[in-house]
Amino acid sequence: MAGSGLLSNVKSQLTFWRVVFFIIVVLGLYSTFIRLYEGLGAATNLSDKFPWGLWIGFDVMCGVGLGAGGFTMAAMVYIFNIKRFKPIVRPSILTAFLGYVLVIMALLLDIGQPHRIWHAIIWWNPHSVLFEVAWCVMLYTTVLALEFSPAVLERLKFEKLSRFIKNLLIPLVILGVLLSMLHQSSLGSLFLIVPEKLYPLWYTPLLPVLFFISSVAVGFAMVIFESYLSARAFSKNLERPLVMELARIIVFVLSLYLVLKLIDMTRRETWQYLFVNRTETYFFWAEWIIGVFAPMILLATPRIRKHQLALFWSVLMVIIGFVMSRLNIAITGMESYSQAGYFPSWMEISITIFIVAMGFAVFRFVVKNFPVFEKSHTVSLSQRPIRIQVQDTPLTETNM
Q1: What is the DSSP secondary-structure string of 385-397?
Q2: N or C: which end of the chain has fewer CB within 10 A?
């Protein structure tokens, strides 16, 4: 009887997503072992002609950008004193912190000699953009850890230390914003040295500016994305007025991004490349339709902003478009010059999925064990909102 009870308990715990997560972890750990034991050549499709692939294009360049919600929300609350956004600051900082930690993990796997990753601390090369990015990422990850530490200290009942850190939040946030502005833009500066290698649709002297502006847009999108998923996963109310306001800000930021890009293309006379029958053309149009034009129109529509699911899919388009943009710059736009076709190996893909899955798992663990969301915004399972669709009007909610 005891054995059958244990067996039934195990079966009840084996949900579909837990099985999927287990498979992802096993494949990810195996691929990581092959990468560390046998080297980059055995685990990746990278080469001397094409040394930067998925791990740089997605894990690093996208990972850093997707963590921009931390500095944007912290700046709005603690620098611009917009206190109504405070309920979503802490989960935004947690998302950013985990994102940066995972970026560091990805870098450990991508560089040829991972055991030398600390060399940037001792041997300085101030003329290198990568050196500046390395230091900014290290320092900003530390800042994020300090910004989130009050949640850990509150859980551990270290009240005095928690209050001390909270008193330092404003200077920490200011430092974090400065560091974020530096390395978000510097990721674009990396490609300024390859004007003849990066395809003209993506190369521009404004790359640092465009990188920073796009990171702000996707940062707000990630805040809405995380808020929606958290509301569903952890039985909490979605801060609807706040996410609707953030959606309006995204429209403004994307509009600024679009105007700057159009002015730049006019100045450099690159419009002709929009109609060339090439792979780069199709990827560029897909990036802009999915990540800029469509979400601008959708998020500018009040009816879409009021509808939870429609809002979620709209900001998801912003995120997908951002990822496509970074991958296009790091991979698609560089392939024609290198004359080396590149598609990531299954090990590269499995490690990337493994890193993302670990981010979700750690976020879930932290939320369940530390005060990430304000108590006043948490509801029990029995109080979960019931959504009622009334013809074509936006969703309304009532608590039973």
Answers
A1: PEEE--TTSPPEE
A2: N
- Report which of 298, 218, 202, 296 is spatially closest to residue 258, judged by C-alpha positions: 296
Question: In CATH, what class is 14-237+329-398?
Answer: mainly alpha
| Pairwise CA distance, residues 73 & 400, whole Å | 32
Model pLDDT for residues 88-117, shown as the tens digit of each residue: 999 999 999 999 999 999 999 998 888 888
C-alpha to C-alpha distance for 165 and 163, rounded to whole angstroms: 5
pTM above 0.85, yes or no: yes
Helix (H, G, I), strand (E, B) or coil at 199: coil
**Quick check: 50 and 338 in contact, CB under 8 A?**
yes
**Cα distances (Å, whole numbers) of residue 120 to 133, 136, 305:** 10, 11, 45
Q: Give pLDDT, residue 237.
A: 74
Q: Which of 230, 240, 379, 399 is nearest to 310 (CA)?
A: 240
Structure tokens of 245? 């306001």
CB 135 within 8 A of CB 128: no
For residues 184 and 278, give the distance between their C-alpha atoms in angstroms, rounded to a whole number. Answer: 29
- Res. 391: pLDDT tops 70: no
